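Final report, closing paragraph on structural work. Over the funding period we assembled a curated collection of sequence-structure pairs, and we close with a single example.
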Amino acid sequence: MTEPIKKYEHYSMIIQWSVPDNAYLVTVPELPGLMTHGDTYEEAVKNGQEVIELWIDASRQSGQSIPEPRVLTAYTM
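Its predicted structure, as stored:
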């Protein structure tokens, strides 16, 4: 049996190290204003996944539209 797709699975996360914050900062380009962080890379990814789901749930509850994920369909060098 196939597991259902989680809400965060197709959204892009940009994860960057911030020297002033001494943490990994996470932004999600498709979801305006969404930002989180983590002390480790793994924590930043986990927090990013959680806030994507929270953002989507809050948008649904308030009747706002939810942008589609940007999916890379081809990659060339």
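The radius of gyration is 14 Å. Strands lie at 14-18, 23-27, 35-38. We thank the funder for supporting this effort.
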